[in-house]
Write a structure and sequence with these properties.
Blueprint (H helix, E strand, L loop, with lengths): L1 H20 L3 H5 L1 H4 L15 H14 L7 H14 L3 H24 L5 H14 L4 H15 L1 H4 L2 E5 L3 H13 L3 E5 L2 H8 L6 E5 L9 H9 L9 E6 L3 H10 L3 E5 L3 H20 L1
Parallel strand pairs: 1-2, 1-3, 3-4, 4-5
Length: 284
Amino acid sequence: AVASTIAKTVSEVQQKIAKSTTPDSHEAKSPSTSQSTPTDTYTQPRKATEEALDMYKRVLMLAWADGAVSPEEQSQLIDLRRNLGITTEQHNKLEQQVKEESYAHAFTLVWTSGMSAKERTAVINELRQKYQISPEAHSRIESSILKEFGEKQDKPLIYVIDDEEETLDMIVRIMEGSGFVVRAFATSDEALIALKKETPDLIVADINLETSTIGGFSFYEKVRQMPQLNLVPFIFLSGLTDEGMIRYGKGLGADDYITKPFSSDMLIDTIKGKLKRYRQMKKN
């Protein structure tokens, strides 16, 4: 259906161009026309008008609606660009806009769908791949959408980093159930990218991040090197057998530790206590 729509648009554009370039009867009879040379009939390449750019963007929205452009649609888009006088640079710019707008729309639908945190994260990651969204663009789009929802106005924002999916999902559910806004990350690498764009009210990270290129302690040190995050409370998660690692982390200056397994009450009480202290420090 999309391919046929694009083909129809290409045909309509070609007909419109043909009508605009066909000389009328008076011009056909004029001596200058009959004596024209190849040099006389040369025309400069068409330049895309604002109307053409708007039309092309609307067609791109159709093509990217399902998160992919088929070879047939790609071929038709090339024909349309040629007829509208759209340059490769203009196409690339419009296509990036379309992919980000389409991703933002899909992200909003997922966020309001009622999915669990684990399901939501999986679907959003899949959408990022489909629409070819960079981590930086994802962070910008996510922040913009959640800000529009007004979730950050009155609720603390918590970053959670843990490579164990079940633990991550459980923590997110507990925190969201207690009224916090939560960003969940399976790796510290993703969290660091997001932290460059946004400042949370508290960070919870596992010490052992085996799927990350940056371990828990190194992640903590990188966080503390960012001026805007220097005072943000940082809580480590640790297994019961990690006593030596806990002692090492205390020397780094982490705000607190929660050992696994933990109760939801312990987690929330610890977070609330650190947030209260953080707010007092910000006022002073």
